[in-house]
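Limitations
The structure tokens in this dataset are predictions for the assembled complex, not deposited experimental models. Users should treat interface geometry with appropriate caution, especially where small molecules or nucleic acid strands are included. An illustrative entry is reproduced here so readers can see what is and is not provided.
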Amino acid sequence: MQESHPAPAAAPLTGRPVIAATGLYTPPESITNAELVASFNAYVDRYNAAHADEIAAGALAPLAHSSAEFIEKASGIKARHVLSKAPILDPEIMCPRLPERANDELSVMAEIGVAAARDALARAGRRAEDVDAVLCAASNMQRPYPAMAIEIQAALGIEGFGFDMNVACSSATFGIQTAADYIRAGHARSVLVVSPEITSGHLNWRDRDSHFIFGDVATAVLVEDAAIAPARHWEILGTRLKTVFSNNIRNNFGFLNRAHPETAAAPDKLFVQEGRKVFKEVVPMVAQMILDEAARLGIAPEALRRLWLHQANAGMNRLIAHKVLGHEASEDESPTVLDTYGNTSSAGSIIAFHLHSDDLAAGDVGLICSFGAGYSAGTVFVRKVH
Ligand code: COA
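Predicted assembly:
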């Protein structure tokens, strides 16, 4: 924790954005692969028993068991944190049950966002009233309006403005570039990018191909002008964003579904993906993007001290890191958090950065990189100062 200090109003701004601090909220409950598979397989057994006649007549295909060994081998995931464990594991429910809150109560998405934001503010020694803007950047919003960011802003006591942005798994890096651009343009001195990811709400816990993928978390990144940032910070050397349309990761849930109540609960109103295609198409796209951006910034990719990559699949990260560094990356060079957090969408690379950056030395250069639905990808090259 740094000493609390106000952002001096008269400090001449540099227009150079830095990461002043990050924050993390981790839900206390966690589900292991063994627990998840036991619940899934109980659901499968009940389903197959309930439909035994149709299955025997060949009119319906039986469901197959899931396996903890497959999950860990295919993805690298061993467990995931969730906000609502018991209903997810109940074979009769298999989704989170988060009680509705009254309008005058803080909503659950704002609550975990505020917790992560407070952590970041405390680490920077920054008072909330000296922050100029809040971006809530996440792959799902709890409601369309009022914006989650404005509720978080109000809960923290921040003046200025806030708005929501959704670029799926790349939301946080897109948020960082947006915040950095406000600093570069002189429109703000201090911007909070908050990513509360309640991914358990969009995951189809009954789908064998994907039921193991996601976990819940919230992260926050405080982006500030170098003139007011605490002594310990990360210089943002360059940011780059990319999107290429693809249906291979898709969720058709939306406000127009209410016109068709009979289809509103269909599986395509949750997360669906062609995992193999995503793997094959996204790895080369992201590796090339990183190499191009490193060249533009005059950074030798093999000299990058650490990669904080999006946490979707350990195999994808191994391949991307290899293409960038030119050799098999060690855990020290490309740390994993998806083993205990699962895929936390846009928060994944920020968790990796938050948990695995204190040990780097002043002058070390690293990369925060996200990728996912859209397709979308974002790079943030950073250098440690102090
Ligand atoms: N338990 C046991 N076996 C399973 C299983 C499960 N839960 N799910 C699938 N399988 C089986 C399949 O039936 C298939 O069997 P077959 O070869 O006999 O047909 C086999 O495992 C391979 O299935 P596949 O879906 O091709 O697995 P995969 O190796 O591609 O791994 C992912 C699946 C999702 C882990 C992987 O594709 C991935 O991570 N892709 C990228 C995902 C990503 O980044 N998404 C972005 C989200 S934001």
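Some entries come with short summary sentences. For this one: Residues 66-67, 70-71, 74-75, 169, 208-209, 249, 273, 275-276, 278-279, 312-313, 316, 343, 372-373 surround coenzyme A (CB under 6 Å).
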